[in-house]
């Protein structure tokens, strides 16, 4: 398995310069994840331009390979279900362009821990606003996505089902686009998105007519820690529910649950991320997390995480995403790299010499 990095925080600097610095300061990094989504700039690659020009693609690929990196995925996180049509269209366009680009890239750029080409585009499921039926059509009202988190009052259950019905129609079409291009999709199960846990992910792929072979996950444990979810238990559950293999990509990110705040207000909170002292939870550098279900997220936890991924057949990358607001990017990255360098298994397993079976 490889250690990678989402390089979006460096988007204001030239790609060649960023990769040269990373190779010099963090030689254990083997892959990069590049953002091409509506929430970020296109400083490290415009999927429409790269998809349309073989010469531009060749130059882009050569830049990445020359510095000793592979491309783990394209980050196309948007909201294709947004009630504002313009943003939904932008999200869908970026997703389609990213899928088209990923399908055209040379296989030498795309290698997992076993040397196999892996074509993945990461994103969110998206979240609609209020969905209503207008004859045979599903229509949206309002301009703000609505996240329904409990089945009562009853209208919230009904609203969720209509949202899922709409999402199934959209993702049935987008899954075909990805499938036709030989590309896998990695949903990041993020709060304020329709697919945000195992239950909602499984419901969405069923409504989309997919078995998880195309519509998979960009598995990010940081979104589960603070909600009382055991990511290892979730991986085992998904292994049974999705024989095709749900995990297509993994983010390496950690979270700390502050029990002095959660014991007063719980974990759902509108306290800004910048107000760390009053947040019920916050993102932290890998290895510094804690929550009451999983305990400390120390080296041993990350070793068990890597093992659980590999037991499910995943051997691609753990891509570091730095969002620790109490550290510089450089310090947070250095600490994350130290933990993952000891946690990942880079070599294929050796033979079992002590038993016949």
Notes on the structure:
The chain has 357 residues and is an alpha/beta fold. The chain has one domain (2-343): TIM Barrel, CATH 3.20.20.150. 38% of the residues lie in helices and 18% in strands. The protein has an 8-stranded parallel barrel. Strands 5-6 form a two-stranded antiparallel sheet. Strands 10-11 form a two-stranded antiparallel sheet. α5 (154-180) packs across α6, α8 packs parallel to α10 and α10 packs across α11. The protein is globular, with a radius of gyration of 20 Å. The two termini are 25 Å apart.
Q: What's the CATH class label?
A: Alpha Beta
Shape, per Cα inertia axes? globular
Strand content: 15-25%
* Assembly level: single chain
Query: Major sheet: size, sense and barrel closure?
Result: 8 strands, parallel, barrel
Spatial arrangement of strands, main beta sheet:
1-2-3-4-7-8-9-14
Would you identify the CATH H-level superfamily?
Divalent-metal-dependent TIM barrel enzymes
- The percent range for helix content is 25-40%
Number of helices: 11
Based on the coordinates given, report the CATH architecture: Alpha-Beta Barrel
Order of helices and strands: EHEHHEHEEEHEHEHHEEHEEEHEH
CATH topology name, in short, is: TIM Barrel
Integer count of domains? 1
Number of strands: 14
**Rg, nearest Å:** 20 Å
Q: Which structural class do you get from the secondary structure elements?
A: alpha/beta
């Amino acid at each position: 398995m490889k250690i990678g990095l989402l390089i979006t925080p460096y988007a204001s600097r030239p790609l060649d310069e960023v990769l040269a610095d990373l190779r010099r300061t963090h030689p254990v990094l083997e892959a990069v994840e590049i953002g091409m989504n509506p929430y970020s700039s296109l400083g490290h690659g415009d999927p429409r331009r790269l998809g349309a020009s073989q010469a531009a693609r060749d130059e882009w690929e050569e830049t990445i390979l020359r510095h000793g990196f592979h491309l783990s995925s394209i980050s196309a996180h948007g909201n294709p279900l947004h009630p504002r049509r313009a943003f939904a269209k932008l999200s869908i366009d970026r997703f389609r362009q990213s899928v088209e680009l990923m399908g055209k890239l040379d296989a030498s750029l795309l290698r997992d821990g076993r040397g196999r080409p892996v074509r993945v585009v990461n994103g969110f499921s998206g979240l609609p606003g209020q969905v209503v039926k207008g004859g045979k059509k599903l229509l949206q009202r309002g301009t703000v996505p609505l996240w329904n988190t409990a089945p009562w009052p009853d209208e919230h259950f009904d609203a969720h089902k209509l949202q899922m019905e709409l999402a199934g129609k959209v993702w049935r079409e987008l899954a075909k686009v990805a499938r036709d291009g030989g590309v896998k999709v990695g949903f990041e199960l993020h709060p304020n998105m329709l697919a945000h846990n195992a239950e909602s992910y499984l419901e969405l792929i069923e409504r989309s007519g997919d078995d998880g072979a195309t519509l998979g996950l960009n598995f990010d444990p940081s979104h589960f820690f603070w909600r009382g979810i055991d990511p290892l238990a979730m991986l085992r559950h998904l292994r049974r529910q999705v024989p095709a293999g749900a995990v297509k990509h993994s983010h390496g990110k950690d979270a700390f649950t502050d029990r002095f705040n959660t014991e007063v207000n719980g974990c759902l909170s509108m306290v800004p991320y910048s107000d760390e002292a009053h947040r019920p939870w916050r993102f932290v550098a890998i290895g510094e997390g804690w929550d009451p279900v999983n305990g400390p997220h120390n080296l041993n936890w990350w070793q068990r995480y890597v093992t659980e991924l590999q037991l499910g057949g995943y051997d691609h990358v753990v891509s570091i995403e730095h969002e620790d607001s109490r550290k510089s990017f450089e310090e947070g990255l250095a600490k994350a790299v130290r933990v993952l360098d000891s946690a990942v298994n880079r070599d294929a397993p050796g033979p079992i010499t002590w038993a016949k079976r």
